[in-house]
Write a structure and sequence with these properties.
With about 170 residues, the protein is mainly alpha-helical. It is about 70% helix and about 0% strand. Helix 7 (about 125-140) runs antiparallel to helix 8. The longest helix has 26 residues, at about 70-95. The two termini are about 25 Å apart.
């Protein structure tokens, strides 16, 4: 099980990383990056610029810019890592709910999903939202109600539709 999961994680990471700098930033990616840089250098609490998104993704982008440089590929690394981690989280949820085979099936689907692969190397909010919501679900199925609440809160503070994870939790 650990070896196969590692293989799916490496495969998923590789498929996402290949697209790191395949395209220029789109409009939303550029504005999110601008807001992240503004928070990083000027106003971390967004008292002078009011983004239409909650701050968790923007702060995470700022951290990526600090670690990897202020570039488009650096912005996209947030979601490449989030998408890769989501593979492991979904595998753990399926394994906990059903069986080790279901966990590997979930890992395979998450690693190879064309939508997940093509959406991960973006600087959009959705892959981090899915990771936070998936972590909330994992905590819920493991009986960790407080942590499930923390992660569903993180999902909501990443993007407003995070509230849609509440019925799952």
């Amino acid at each position: 099980y650990p070896l196969l999961l590692s293989l799916f994680l490496l495969l998923g990471f590789g498929l996402r990383l290949v697209l790191l700098d395949a395209y220029p930033l789109r409009e939303d990616e550029a504005i999110y990056s601008y807001w992240a840089l503004h928070a990083l250098h000027v106003d971390p609490l967004y008292l002078t610029v009011w983004p239409d998104k909650p701050p968790v993704f923007l702060w995470t982008l700022g951290a990526a810019f600090t670690l990897f440089g202020e570039t488009a590929p650096a912005a996209r690394m947030v979601n490449i890592f989030a998408g890769t981690l989501t593979i492991a989280v979904l595998a753990a949820v399926a394994r906990r709910l059903w069986s080790p085979g279901a966990g590997m099936g979930a890992a395979a689907l998450a690693a190879l999903s064309p939508y997940a692969v093509s959406f991960a190397p973006t600087a959009l909010t959705d892959p981090l939202l899915v990771l936070a919501g998936s972590l909330a679900l994992l905590c819920a199925v493991c009986g960790r109600a407080a942590w499930a609440g923390v992660w569903v809160g993180a999902a909501i503070m990443t993007k407003q539709p995070g509230v849609l994870f509440i019925p799952l939790i």
